[in-house]
């Protein structure tokens, strides 16, 4: 008797993850070689912690890996099992992320002005909104479940979320492996939550992003052999923001509206504090400086690796709370485990800072 294998949703998610990870592992050395030959390197300066030129177009490998994995899933029929509205949304997020990648890559190659980047980012976000990647309502608990339509505010709210998240990821990309690891952890949490909340389109994108981001760490973790650049940060930031919109913010659940903010709390809070501190001092919110969390930890005498691991554990900790808010089974157990990990890493940070201070 002949048996015909029919792939399930979970099969397509696994394929997206594995293909993306393997493609980025294969393509990153190729991109590095091209970057060295073409001279597209990130040179040291007072704001940066690396001391030698490093190729800064690694985002090309992430872009190729994630998009190819999604195209392979589409070729296998993985998009065909999605509801019609989710099929359109997944294309909207993917195309929008590709456009953001090219904006970032152009900045890597030609150093675009901040105002020009912001205008182009807003235009692309408007296109994504038009394609269905939009925040149409806010969900609040009031005598049950109440959805408030935001009407004409949908466009500006969506643009602020998409553009803000893209730049939040780009701003934390200041240490070896930091942005890639944070995005990888956040993508895994979004994958789990999206699957649990029956949002297969969002889960598919999250799976591909998780594979690409975690695979890239093979070359990007300290000491980094290659940087993702603005292209990679923009691409991953938009994918995370898009998954938050189509997979979580649209879910009719009391807690769903806060899930993207919980999962991405670390880059969001870091960016918000930096912007506020700059404005309070009468400076431009877009003026580069060393106010970010990773800069402050380095100034306190914490090593690059420990700083990155601390922010990883912080990201995993807030992500565990998202599991609880989504109603994921045994979510509290994951919170306890993540809390223990964060406590241990925090103790290591305190211990290293104390040793550093005593040696002065």
UniProtKB/TrEMBL annotation:
Listed GO molecular functions? metal ion binding; phosphotransferase activity, for other substituted phosphate groups
**Where is this protein localized, as stated in its record?**
Cell membrane
Q: Name one GO cellular component term.
A: plasma membrane
Give the keywords, sorted: Cell membrane, Magnesium, Membrane, Metal-binding, Transferase, Transmembrane, Transmembrane helix
Going by the entry's taxonomy, the superkingdom of the source organism is recorded as Bacteria
Binding annotation for Mg(2+): 170, 230
Give the transmembrane ranges.
Answer: 12-34, 54-76, 88-105, 112-130, 150-171, 178-197, 203-221, 233-252, 258-280, 306-325, 331-350
**Alphabetical list of CDD domains matching this protein:** GT_WecA_like
- Named cofactor requirement(s): Mg(2+)
The answer to keyword NADP applying to this record is: no
Q: Name one GO biological process term.
A: cell wall macromolecule biosynthetic process
Topology in the lipid bilayer is annotated as: Multi-pass membrane protein
Supply the name of the protein. Glycosyl transferase, family 4, conserved region
Source lineage: Bacteria, Bacillati, Cyanobacteriota, Cyanophyceae, Oscillatoriophycideae
């Amino acid at each position: 008797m002949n048996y015909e294998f029919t792939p399930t949703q979970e099969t397509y998610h696994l394929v997206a993850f594995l293909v993306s990870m393997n493609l980025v592992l294969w393509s990153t050395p190729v991109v590095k070689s091209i970057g060295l030959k073409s001279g597209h390197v990130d040179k040291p300066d007072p704001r940066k912690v690396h001391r030698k030129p490093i190729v800064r177009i690694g985002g090309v490998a992430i872009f190729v890996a994630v998009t190819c994995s999604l195209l392979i899933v589409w070729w296998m029929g993985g998009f065909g099992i999605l509801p019609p509205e989710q099929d359109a949304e997944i294309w909207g997020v993917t195309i929008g992320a590709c456009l953001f990648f090219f904006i970032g890559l152009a900045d890597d190659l030609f150093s675009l002005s901040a105002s020009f980047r912001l205008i182009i980012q807003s235009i692309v976000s408007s296109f994504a909104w038009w394609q269905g990647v939009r925040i149409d309502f806010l969900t609040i608990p009031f005598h049950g479940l109440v959805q408030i339509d935001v009407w004409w505010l949908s466009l500006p709210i969506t643009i602020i979320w998409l553009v803000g998240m893209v730049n939040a990821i780009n701003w934390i990309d200041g240490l070896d492996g930091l942005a890639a690891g944070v995005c990888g952890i956040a993508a895994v949490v979004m994958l789990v939550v999206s699957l649990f909340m029956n949002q297969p389109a969002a889960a598919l994108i999250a799976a591909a992003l998780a594979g690409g981001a975690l695979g890239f760490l093979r070359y990007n973790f300290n000491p980094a052999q290659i940087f993702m650049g603005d292209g990679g940060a923009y691409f991953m930031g938009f994918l995370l923001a898009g998954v938050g919109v189509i997979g979580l913010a649209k879910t009719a659940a009391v807690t769903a509206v806060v899930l993207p903010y919980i999962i991405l709390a670390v880059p969001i809070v870091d960016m918000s504090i930096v912007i506020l501190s700059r404005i309070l001092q009468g400076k431009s919110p877009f003026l580069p400086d060393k106010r970010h969390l990773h800069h402050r930890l380095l100034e306190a005498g914490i090593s690059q690796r420990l700083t990155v691991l601390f922010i990883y554990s912080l990201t995993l900790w807030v992500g565990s709370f998202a599991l609880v808010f989504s109603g994921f089974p045994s979510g509290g157990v994951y919170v306890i485990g993540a809390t223990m990990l964060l406590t241990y890493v925090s103790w290591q940070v305190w211990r290293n800072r104390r040793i550093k201070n005593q040696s002065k």
